[in-house]
């Protein structure tokens, strides 16, 4: 009984945070953000505790809810910690969201020969992007698909300050 009251109190507090975030313009995501499939979510809270940014997600009425999407910087920890795979990472808003491509550990996408690094792969921080780019190039070299006549070995496409 006490547990239920405690959870209801937390749920109400998170619901208030959602309202405040909407009023202050912090509810709409700026970039990469979690999207919760409420039909899969079991409300374990693993996504909340794994997020290093805190206060991005909360439990409202027994399911995870995005509270402060504009503060999400795309660590992806919530995605990896969800025990029922109820979280996907998207770029843009929910009305025009784009799901992230499937990326293998070597940074190759599900399309052979296409490698990605950085925000498109779910980690938007410059340090992560640089490391991922380095590893992607190393894996391209290891693949042995270089120096085919008429085909460029590597094309780097960037955006923002570096692109």
Strand order of the largest sheet: 1-4-5
* Residues in helices, as a percent range: 25-40%
Following the backbone from N to C, one meets helices and strands in this order, namely HEHEEHEEH
Poorly predicted segments: none
DSSP summary: helix tally = 4
Describe the 3D structure:
By secondary structure, the chain is α+β, with helices and mostly antiparallel strands. The protein has 2 domains: 2-99, 2-Layer Sandwich (Alpha-Beta Plaits); 101-148, no CATH class. The protein is 31% helix and 12% strand. It contains 4 helices and 5 strands, in the order H-E-H-E-E-H-E-E-H. The protein has helices spanning 2-24, 46-50, 77-81, 126-143; strands spanning 33-36, 57-60, 63-66, 87-91, 98-99. The strands form 2 sheets. A 3-stranded antiparallel beta sheet has the order 1-4-5. Strand 4 and strand 5 (98-99) form a beta hairpin. It starts with a helix and ends in a 20-residue tail after the last helix. The model has no long low-confidence stretch (mean pLDDT 76).
Task: Describe how the helices and strands are arranged.
Layout: H1 2-24, E1 33-36, H2 46-50, E2 57-60, E3 63-66, H3 77-81, E4 87-91, E5 98-99, H4 126-143
Question: How do you describe this structure in short?
Answer:
The chain has helices at residues 2-24, 46-50, 77-81, 126-143; strands at residues 33-36, 57-60, 63-66, 87-91, 98-99. With 163 residues, the chain is α+β, with helices and mostly antiparallel strands.
Task: Give descriptors for this structure.
163 residues; alpha+beta; Alpha-Beta Plaits; 2 domains; three-stranded antiparallel sheet; two-stranded antiparallel ribbon; 4 helices
